Amino acid sequence: QVQLVESGGGLVQAGGSLRLSCTASGLPVNNYAMGWFRQAPGKEREFVGISRGHIPDYSDSVKHRFSISRDNDKNTLYLQMNNLKPEDTAVYYCGRVRRGYKGYTTGDYGYWGQGTQVTVSS
C-alpha cells in the first residue's frame, strides 16, 4: 500500500487538547517536507502548519497553540493541538510536499491522507 493515514481525531471540549498522527506506509516521507491542512464545512482547505527541515511554520490562527513534530523511526508526523477552540472544528489532513515547493497551498502537495475529524464543543 502507498498511503498516509491520519488518526487521533475526536470530540473535545474547548480548552482541551488532542494529538493527531499521520503515518506513512509504502511512501517515503522522512526526506520530504510534510504539512497539515484542515477543512471545515463550506470552507476551503486551510493551511495549518508544515514540517520542513528544521524550520516548522504555522498559520497565525494556530501559532502558539499547535505544534508539529516527527518520529522518523515510525514514519509518523504529529500535530499537537492545545487550547482548542470551536473554530478549530474541521477535518484535518496531512500531506507530502512536492520537491521544490514551499507547502503553503494545496497544489504544493502530491499525496494526502483521508483526513480525521476534530470537533471542539463550547
Question: What would your notes on this structure say?
Answer:
The protein contains no helices and eleven strands. The protein is mostly beta strands and 122 residues long. A hairpin with a 6-residue loop joins strand 4 and strand 5. The N and C termini lie far apart (39 Å). 32% of the residues are buried. The model has no long low-confidence stretch (mean pLDDT 96).
Shape: globular
Compute the CA-based radius of gyration. 13 Å
Continuous helix count: 0
Output the helix-strand order: EEEEEEEEEEE
What's the multimeric state?
Answer: single chain
The averaged pLDDT comes out at: 96
Largest sheet: 7 strands, mixed
Q: Could you tell me the strand content as a percent range?
A: over 45%
- What gap, in angstroms, lies between the N and C termini? 39 Å
How many E-type strands?
11
Parts with pLDDT < 50 across at least 5 consecutive residues: none
| Helix content bin | under 10%
Q: Strand pairing plus helix content: what structural class?
A: mainly beta
